[in-house]
Each structure stands twice: as structure tokens, then as C-alpha cells.
Amino acid sequence: MAANTVLRIGLTGGIGSGKSTVAALLAAFGAVVIDTDLIARQLTAPGGGAIDAVRSAFGADFIDANGALDRAQMRALAFSDAGAKRRLEAILHPLIGLETERQAGVAEAPAIVFDVPLLVESGRWTALVDRVWVVDCLESTQRARVMTRSGWSEAAVAAVIGHQATRASRRRSADAVIYNDEISVLELEREVRELWDESIALAR
Predict the structure, then answer these.
(1) Strands (DSSP E) along 53-182, which ranges?
(2) What's the rounded Cα separation, in Å, for the pair 6 and 110?
(3) pLDDT computed for residue 124 by the predictor
(4) Of 12, 13, 11, the residue nearest 137 (C-alpha)
(5) How buried is residue 73: exposed, middle or buried, by Cβ count under 10 Å (0-12/13-18/19+)?
(6) Dihedral (Cα; 26, 32, 33, 36), 10-degree rounding
(7) Cα 22 versus chain centre, distance
(8) How far is residue 42's CA from residue 109's CA, in Å, rounded to a whole number?
(9) Confidence band (pLDDT; 50, 70, 90) for 163?
(10) Cα-based distances in Å from 202 to 29, 97, 111, 131, 199
């Protein structure tokens, strides 16, 4: 990375890994966190920039009474129809990319953290960041966490996990792995802090 440039970190992890907790810690340490999932939700909220294109591509049935994307219905379709998933991605990904770079362009921080749930699956994000950090835990821990927080059935959680990259593929793509299993929040904070301090020092 050239001198005086901002470190770009790609943060990813499977559902229930604790990625959002790590992102919040990094924000507290001084990073600007750009949450691509949040951007996607904003684009598909009532009046969002993707709503008209989604309605044209999938029909009014996929827009709820409030004018937002019916996320549950779209999730079910995307899991059962790979073509539908690609059509949705073709709508969202360019818009997410534009907003991501807009936010990055005005960020003032020693590092920008791009919180990208499907970073490994995208095939493009690894070329857009300087480092890839993966938040990792056992799959059984993922299932338990998501079932507890969301009330989903085990089958529903397993379906989501099955459509994400495997733990092994995420770890192979990682420059650093943050192992978040059977540790306290304080221990996780210490682990992330050490990685942050080391990375910022090397980037200077």
C-alpha cells in the first residue's frame, strides 16, 4: 500500500459468526465501517434506489405493503432459484458498489472497514481491499446464535449457511482470522485490538 493512503480492510464471516460485533469494535477503535448489508437494506427500503428495478424484474408481489422489498419472500426465491439470485445481484451489486465507494471517498480515518457478508463469494472484493479479515466460529455456534437471536428454525439457519462460503474457503481467503468461539466479549475485544494496532502500525 502506498504511503499516506488509507488502509482498506474487508471484513467478512458467516451468519452468526459475530462479524457485526467485530465491526462495532473496529468503529470504536477509529475505523470508518461501511456496512454493505445496511446499504442493501436502504436500497430496498420504501423509496430505495433499487425498488423500481426489483419490481420490474420480479413483479409487485415481491414488494410489501410499505413499498419495501419483501425480504423473506425474496430470500426463499433466491435459495430455490439460482437465476433469480443472479438477477437480484445484478440489480443490487452495482448500486451497492457506487454507494460504498462514495462513502469511502469521504471517509477520514486510519482505515476503512468494508463489512461484506459475502466477500469471498463475490469473487471481486478481495481485489478491492488491502487485507481480508475473517470472523470465524464453529457451524454449531452459528446455528445456535442465529436461532437464539432471530427465532429461526434450525433448518432455516442451515439453509442460509449452506448458501454461504464454507469456513475452509473463507479461512483460505483470509489475511487474518478472528476466532470468535467460546471466548468472552472482553477476550474478543483484546484479540481485535491487537490485530487493529498491528495493522495500523504496519500501514504507516
Answers:
(1) 111-115, 131-136, 176-179
(2) 6
(3) 87
(4) 13
(5) middle
(6) -160
(7) 12
(8) 24
(9) confident
(10) 16, 27, 12, 12, 5
